[in-house]
Every structure is written in C-alpha cells, then in structure tokens.
Write a structure and sequence with these properties.
heterodimer, A: alpha/beta, Rossmann fold, eight-stranded mixed sheet, about 15% strand, B: alpha/beta, elongated
C-alpha cells in the first residue's frame, strides 16, 4: 500500500474544514479503506472532538515528532470503524513546534501501511498551512458560497499553484439552493467561474452536520442525510469513481449546469 | 572554510539582513548560507532576511525549499531581489517582496517607458489570483483572468486577455498615455497615470473595453479596432 496524502484547506476559518475531514475519513473507511487523519491545527485542536475521540488522547503529533512516543502510540482508533485512525494535534503547543519536513517525515512513515492520509489544515496561510500542504499529493480547497470565503480560497489556490501542487480540487460547503434561487447566495457556478479549478463536491446546508459534530458522530455515517450523501460521493470521487452530482434543486436544473461546469476543466 | 564564507555576503540593513549571493552554483551558496546561520544561531534568531540573488535564476522549488529551511531556523525570508524578471515573478507569486528600501544601483539603467508603442512586456499565461501583486517596469500582458484581490502595477500598458476584476495601475511612473484593456472589464480599482483614480462599481459588459486618459480623466470605452492609432 502506498497512501495518498490529501490536505483539506481553505484560507478562511469556519468554512467547515474539520467537519469535511471527519466526514470524508468516515466515508472512505466505511468503504474499507485504511485511513489516518492528522489534525494540523496545533494549539487549536478540534478534529478529535468532531470525531468523538477527545477522551482517548494520550499522545499527540508533537510527542511523535519530538520522539516521546512511537507513531503507533499516537494513532487513536475510531470507536466504530476499525480501519480509521486519528493523530491528534497538541493543544498546549503552537504551530512552530512542527516544520514542513517533520510533516513529510511523518507521512513517509505512514505511507506504506495505509490507503489515505487526510490532513486537516489550520485556517490562514502561515506556518500551520505550510506544514499541512508540504506532504500533500492532493489538496481539497473548501469554501462556502460567500464572497469572503471565495476570495480566501482564491488566494490559497494561487499559493498552491506557485508551489506547483498540481492536484487541486474544490469543495463548496453549505450551499443553500433556496437562497441561491432568491439571488441571496452565490451559486456553485459563480464560485467555479471565479476559481476555475476542478469541482469535487457540493455539500448542501444541513443541520445534521452541526448535530453530528457536537455528538462526535460525523454525518457521513447517517444514511439518510443529504450532506452525508454528498460527503460519501466526494469520497467515491477521491477513489476515482465517476459519481454524478446530487440534484440539490430539481426545478432549476442546477444539477445539469453544474455537471457541465465540472466537466469543463 | 573561508571559501564558504566568501560565497555569501551578509550585511545589516535598517529593516533586517541583506544576503548577497555570488555567481557560484546555487546548491553551494545555499549550503554556505545555512551553515553560517547554524554557526551563529543567536545572531540570526528571529531575523528578517532579504536575499539578493543577482543574476541567478531561482526556481519555485528552490525558493520554497530555502524559505522552509530558513523558517525551521526561525529566520523569515521576506524579500528576494533579482535582476532576472523570471526570478522576480517567482518571488512575487510566493508573496515575497522584490524591492528593498535601498534601491539597487542597476535600477537606474532599467527599461523606461517612453514610447508606449514598444518596449519590454511581462507575459503571464495564467490566472492572477487574490494576494498576487505583479509589478513591472514595462507592459504587462495576462492570458487569463485577474481576480479580485490581485494587483497589477505596470509602468506601461496592461492588457488582460480575460476578465479583469482585480486592481490595476497602468503608467505607474506617471505616463498618461498608458492604457488598460480587458476582454471583460470590471476592476475593483483602476488607475492610469499619476492620480487619475476612479473607484469603479462597474458591471461587466461581456465586451472588450479599454481605459485611458482623456481630458485628465480616466474613461472606459468599448474597444474598437483602429482606436489604438489615436493613442
């Protein structure tokens, strides 16, 4: 096995990076892949909370890097999925305790044993972000259909281009088709039009996501949730399957147009 | 090890350190610089570093690698000064400054726009995204979009073969004959020449347009073949 390293980033905070990581990880692991999530947000960790593993943390990523424990000891196994692991961030340290080459070394050590390594990048474009993208084979940029989030995503895509990270794809999170129809929210086309990168998923706004995050049960485990379905589709596309985009709004034929746009690049 | 030290020159500036490279191969110079930093850790701790690479051409990977090596040593690279436009462009794309407060003596001999019909142009075959700042002493031609949050400053003309939605300044040294053209014209900020700045809430028309100065004011008009002859 040689793992694919996927970093989830956004520039702006609060667009749903951590939720996206947890849900894609759950979806990939439910399909039988061996997945390790790394929380790159050192000093502000919360992937453990969203995955419901907070009370199992003994060692964290800084302990591994500074040699206080073995990599295996810092990998926390998920409660439900035996092939899903989390390497938590340190809460009492800051981003400077880790360097890009530390991240490369860590991922190289994991690569032979797993299928996917998902890295949750912190917001911003500073040290923590640099650490998170250093080992990435592929970067998923998460944005919301809001002008400020799209502007930051554009900046991140520009940095990724400058660093010659070729495989970049976009996730539009929290799209509300009703608001788009009233012209109160940017549409998926507006966002894609500006960013001009490949679209890998659109996640509709869904209260279940918040409830799931608070309970530590990612919504991708809920077979009935629309957002859960969207995350499962993203996981399938990551594995190379050709999955049609969900019909978020039947009347407007948005689905057809989005598919056309996605096929454009 | 005297050889190593002579490969790179380090001197203090008002706002940090300036490292000047010689003509030796990049790998050797990088090693020399990093070993100097390792030797004098306390001196370099927390320093802001500007790098004058002279005529050397640095690739993106090399610059990224150096910046990461430096940041591991708690030294921040903020500027790369170069005589090569390619290297300058690379530095700008990484968000690094390409000018330091003390102007380089060579700058006086650089290209100056006098006749706007000709001159050197910087050709960019990509979308210019938020956070990118392109500054050039000649014309700038972009084959791609200029997104909101991006900035282009040219001493000559700016031609965008794509959508213009960022900030542009043509004729930045005061040249009032400069023009800005774009296939779709909706800049956040537009300046031509000295201080003819207009804040524009203009919507895209979907047709090519051109901005230039007429009677000391910036005007935007649909682009027509043959129009440029008057300029």
């Amino acid at each position: 096995m040689t793992a694919q390293v996927i970093t989830i980033s956004s520039g702006k905070g609060g667009v749903g990076k951590t939720t996206t990581v947890a849900n894609i990880a759950v979806a990939l692991a439910s399909d039988g892949a061996k997945v390790v999530c790394i929380d790159g947000d050192i000093g502000l960790r919360n992937l453990d909370v969203v995955m419901g593993l907070e009370n199992r943390i003994v060692y964290d990523i800084v302990d591994v890097i500074e040699g206080r424990c073995k990599l295996r000891q810092a990998m926390i196994r998920d409660k439900h999925l035996s092939e899903l692991y989390l390497i938590p961030a340190a809460q009492t340290r800051d981003k400077n305790s880790v360097s890009p080459s530390d991240m490369n070394r860590l991922c190289d050590e994991l690569r032979p044993d797993v299928d996917f390594i998902l890295i949750d990048s912190p917001a911003g474009i500073e040290r923590g972000f640099r650490n998170a993208i250093a080992p990435a084979d592929r970067v998923l940029v998460v944005t919301n259909p809001e002008v400020s989030a799209v502007r930051d995503a554009d900046r991140v895509v520009g940095i990724l281009e400058a660093e010659e990270k070729r495989q970049t794809a976009l996730i539009i999170n929290r799209l509300n088709p009703a608001l788009v129809k009233q012209h109160d929210m940017l549409s998926a086309e507006d966002v894609l039009d500006l960013l001009g990168i490949r679209l890998i998923g659109i996640v509709p706004e869904d209260e279940g996501v918040i409830v799931g995050s608070n309970r530590g049960v990612p919504v991708a485990q809920d077979g009935k949730s629309r957002a859960g379905q969207a995350f499962r589709n993203i996981a399938k596309r990551i594995r190379g399957e050709d999955v049609a985009f969900m019909d978020l709004d039947k009347q407007s034929g948005l689905w057809n147009r989005i598919q056309k746009m996605a096929g454009r690049k | 090890m005297d050889d190593l030290a002579s490969l790179v020159q380090i001197k203090g500036l008002r706002d940090g350190l300036l490292v000047s490279l010689s003509d030796a191969p990049w790998e050797e110079q990088r090693a020399a610089l990093l070993s100097q930093i390792d030797e004098k850790q306390s001196f370099f701790q927390g320093a802001r570093l500007a790098l004058d690479v002279g005529t050397q051409i640095l690739r993106v990977n090399e610059m990224v690698e150096l910046r990461d090596h430096l940041s591991e040593r708690n030294v921040s690279l903020w500027a790369v000064v170069s005589e090569s436009p390619t290297t300058e462009k690379t530095a700008q794309l990484l968000g690094l400054a390409t000018r330091i407060s003390k102007p380089r003596p060579e700058e006086a001999h650089r290209f100056e726009v006098q006749d706007l019909g000709e001159g050197t142009a910087l050709f960019l075959n990509k979308t210019i995204r938020s956070g990118a700042r392109i500054e050039f002493s000649g014309h700038v031609v972009v084959l791609g979009d200029v997104n909101p949050g991006a900035e282009i400053i040219a001493e000559g003309n700016i031609i965008i073969w794509g959508r213009l939605r960022g900030a542009v300044h043509a004729g930045s040294k005061g040249n009032e004959a400069a023009v800005v053209c774009a296939l779709d014209f909706a800049p956040i900020r537009l300046q031509v020449g000295p201080d003819a700045m207009i804040t524009s809430n203009k919507k895209e028309t979907g047709k090519p347009e051109m901005a230039f100065i007429r009677d000391e004011r910036v005007v935007i008009e649909p682009w027509q073949a043959g129009q440029q002859e008057n300029l």
